[in-house]
Specification:
Elements (H helix, E strand, L loop, with lengths): L2 H11 L4 E7 L5 H13 L4 E5 L10 H12 L4 H12 L5 E4 L2 H7 L1 H11 L3 E3 L9 H10 L2 E3 L1 E2 L5 H9 L5 E4 L14 H10 L6 E4 L5 H8 L4 E4 L1 H8 L4 H20 L4
Parallel strand pairs: 1-2, 1-9, 2-3, 3-4, 4-5, 6-7, 7-8, 8-9
Helix pairs in contact: 2-4, 2-12, 4-6, 6-7, 10-12, 11-12
């Protein structure tokens, strides 16, 4: 079983959901991103989602786009992301990577899978790669024992949902809304229905992303999902801070609030 699977099993045994915290590699710097993700783990985040910064995202909202732009302007590259993954994996927390497909294709699919596994990564979340076009990745992930997480959405037909989750390993990423990432004032009404539909066709854990920004919202999502995925709200802690120390302090505070939220799910 993957380390992601172990994390979900442990949380389930504890009667709670897994908290997944997302941060782009290289934001605000390579070392700064390692410090930020380490702080998240220390404050109670169970799984770290390291995003490879990309210049043309299709799923990221303005907060993650801005953080990725800062990382890219600083010169971060895919090899830097692998170094970040290795450093964060050394904390003991499972590290999953979120990436658009072009950087992996450019690196070389088999070589990337090899180097990701060597760095301690558990697998990939691929928002713009569908199973029908993922032949190279399916083979490489099998060869190197990596998880693969494809996305399902409220608009997915029953047939497409079943096909997509059938190719997942580790967990399934359910997008709570039709749109881009970003914290929102209220939780999605469509997400509980989508999670229920996913559970009809797979025993894999289901993580819900897009829109969560507070401990209360995390608790609501934890009431029906196996995992709560948070990105923009955590990244904003660093974006809005006057300096690095203040940003890390805010990041620790919000991470702890979210961690408490998933530990007190709302039925």
């Amino acid at each position: 079983m993957s380390r992601i699977g172990v994390a979900f099993d442990k949380a389930r045994a504890d009667g709670r959901a897994v908290l997944v915290g997302c941060m782009p590699a290289g934001f605000p710097t390579v070392e700064g991103s390692i410090a930020a993700m380490t702080a998240m783990v220390e404050a109670g985040v169970d799984v770290i989602e390291v995003e490879i910064p990309y210049s043309d995202p299709v799923m990221d909202g303005p907060v993650i786009q801005k953080a990725s732009d800062i990382a890219l302007a600083g010169g971060v590259r895919t090899r830097d992301t692998l170094r970040v993954i290795e450093a964060v994996a050394a904390t003991g927390a499972p590290v999953v990577t979120m990436t658009y497909w072009n950087p992996v294709e450019r690196y070389g699919v088999d070589a990337f899978a090899r180097d990701l596994a060597a760095a301690g990564g558990t697998g990939l979340i691929t928002p713009d790669l569908i199973p029908e076009e993922a032949g190279e990745w399916l083979a490489a992930s099998d060869a190197y024992g990596l998880d693969r997480t494809f996305l399902v959405s409220p608009s997915s037909t029953d047939a497409r949902l079943a096909m997509t989750v059938g190719h997942c390993r580790g967990f399934v990423y359910a997008t709570a809304i039709m749109g881009v990432t970003g914290a929102r004032a209220r939780n999605s009404d469509a997400a509980p229905v989508l999670v229920s539909r996913v559970r009809e066709v797979t025993d894999l854990p289901v993580g819900v992303g897009l829109g969560v920004g507070t401990g209360a919202q995390a608790g609501t999502v934890a009431g029906y999902a196996d995992g709560v995925i948070v990105g923009s709200a955590l990244i904003r802690c660093l974006l809005d801070a006057p300096d690095e120390a203040a940003g890390l302090a805010a990041l620790r505070t919000l991470s702890a609030e979210l961690a408490q939220g998933v530990r007190t799910p709302t039925p």
